[in-house]
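Field log, afternoon session.

UNIT: design team B
ACTIVITY: writing a sequence onto a fixed backbone
BACKBONE:
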């Protein structure tokens, strides 16, 4: 769908060409593009300011029916995200107008230190992600995604730039797959259904798939995970996906929270707080999609995806506040609140992967706490880690992909908050303050000293409103981040 092409814009007939324009610097060498950008900037109604746009028809010198000029703003303020947003908004705007193909002119000069390859990559990401529509549950859909998005580069640059599309396509397809799973309503993604859906996609992509079903989980004593599933009509599972990369030395285990609906259990959620809880499997979606995309582009690491899938419901069989359960690792846990369920399924999955696979790193991705959203808002994830390098690499990866992450502390003395009078630990802190930290400290007890990071994506996983290159709903946060992280970590 994304292609890099060279074309003489004076000759080739096309419908729509988008031309990003910088406010204060020329960014094209091609004579036709240079002249067109100059002409647009010469008009009163267009200055190249950020997000300003101007559409001209049948412009002499360019054989496109429609040319959309888009302002990038001042040279010194332009970054990767400026280009993603530009491309995403242009594609979204074009969906209404129904061309099957849109062309983008790729800047031919460095912008603010960014190479043309970086500019192209960011433009392709924004365009590809902006082209996603979730319409599975809509009847007659008038708006259709574009069939082709073409990126015009200079003759001499094409050979070097062409390979970029393959990686961008694989990673963005993963992001879109995660979004789709998140957007499916909980009645259509019971734990059984979601398990089947993920396992099916994973097998099709050539991943090794293992499913621990309810009776195997009982037999192997996944007491914490089973306690969360107890109130639901649906049966839980632990899905293990494996991708081996030839010659890779190290293994990274990814663990994703897969609560297909979080009602809170007997500590039932109130008011509006239950409304978006179909998205409580966003960590699972990100991990599954990352493994599936990894099978297409082989990162430097062997990967294990461990995905516990349950539904958290109240019923006569549900786990009660005050109940004590024994986790897979053997520690007993008093259930202080049945709504703190994510940490219970994560510790059993984490204990299992560290014991079974001895990975070099464990990274869990989870919509874990409302407290993290209170702390960092809807657009920034919290990162907790026992390893400086791993934490630093995650933060740096997020800066690059604009999946922003902020390091949070794991203060040793706060562990006292998790003390229980009757069991080894409680699943909630004894105060309401610092809830994201309490949850992370709870997880930290089950890492068996493996370098570990926990990414709390409760804020950025799901957005009620659309944005430049994402529709309303699941964002797929985490997939691009993890691929960028694999590049950053030493293999
Ligand atoms: N799934 C929620 C966390 C959440 C909140 C995700 C908002 C996305 C948006 C989690 O299972 C939960 O309910 N956490 C409780 C923990 C509390 C009971 C200690 C919370 O954050 O209130
Ligand atoms: Zn909950
Ligand atoms: Zn939850």
């Amino acid at each position: 769908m994304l292609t890099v092409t060279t074309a003489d814009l004076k000759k080739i007939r096309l419908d729509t060409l988008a031309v990003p324009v910088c406010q204060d610097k020329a960014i094209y060498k091609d004579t036709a593009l240079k002249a067109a950008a100059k002409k647009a900037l010469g008009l009163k109604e267009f200055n190249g300011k950020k997000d300003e746009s101007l559409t001209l028809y049948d412009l002499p010198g360019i054989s496109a029916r429609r040319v959309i000029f888009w302002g990038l703003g001042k040279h010194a303020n332009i970054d990767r995200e400026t280009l993603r947003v530009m491309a995403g908004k242009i594609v979204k705007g074009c969906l209404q107008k129904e061309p099957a193909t849109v062309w983008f002119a790729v800047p031919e000069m460095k912008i603010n230190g960014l190479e043309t390859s970086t500019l192209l990559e960011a433009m392709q990401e924004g365009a590809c992600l902006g082209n996603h529509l979730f319409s599975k549950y809509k009847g007659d859909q008038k708006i259709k995604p574009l069939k082709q998005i073409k990126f015009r580069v200079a003759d001499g640059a094409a050979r070097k730039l062409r390979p970029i599309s393959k990686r961008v396509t694989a990673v963005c397809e993963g992001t879109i797959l995660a979004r789709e799973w998140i957007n499916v309503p909980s009645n259509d993604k019971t734990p059984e259904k979601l398990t089947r859906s993920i396992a099916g996609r994973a097998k099709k992509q050539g991943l090794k798939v293992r499913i621990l079903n309810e009776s195997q989980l009982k037999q192997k004593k996944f007491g914490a995970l089973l306690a969360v599933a107890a109130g639901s009509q649906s049966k839980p599972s632990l899905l293990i996906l494996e991708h081996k990369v030839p010659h890779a030395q190290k293994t990274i285990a990814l663990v994703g929270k897969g609560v297909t609906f979080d009602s809170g259990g007997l500590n039932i959620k109130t008011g509006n707080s239950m409304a978006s809880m179909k998205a409580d499997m966003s960590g699972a979606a990100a991990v599954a999609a990352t493994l599936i995309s990894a099978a297409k582009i082989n990162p430097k690491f062997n990967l294990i995806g461990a995905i516990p899938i349950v539904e958290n419901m109240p019923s006569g069989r549900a786990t009660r506040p005050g109940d004590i359960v024994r986790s897979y690792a053997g520690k007993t846990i008093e259930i202080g609140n049945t709504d703190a369920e994510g940490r219970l399924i994560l510790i059993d999955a984490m204990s299992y992967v560290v014991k079974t696979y001895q990975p070099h790193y464990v990274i869990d991705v989870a919509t874990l706490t409302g407290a993290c959203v209170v702390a960092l808002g809807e657009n920034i994830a919290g990162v907790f880690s026992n390893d400086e390098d791993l934490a630093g690499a995650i933060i740096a990866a997020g800066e690059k992909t604009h999946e922003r992450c902020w390091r949070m502390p794991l203060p040793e003395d706060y562990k006292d908050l998790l003390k229980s009078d009757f069991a080894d630990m409680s699943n909630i802190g004894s105060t309401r303050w610092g809830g994201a930290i309490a949850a992370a400290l709870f997880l930290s007890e089950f890492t068996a000293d493996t370098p570990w990071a926990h990414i709390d994506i409760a804020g950025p996983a799901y957005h009620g409103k659309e944005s430049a290159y994402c529709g309303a709903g699941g964002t797929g946060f985490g997939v691009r981040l993890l691929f960028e992280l694999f590049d950053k970590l030493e293999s």
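LOG NOTE: The domain at 174-490 is CATH 3.40.630.10 (Aminopeptidase).
NEXT ACTIVITY: expression trials, pending approval
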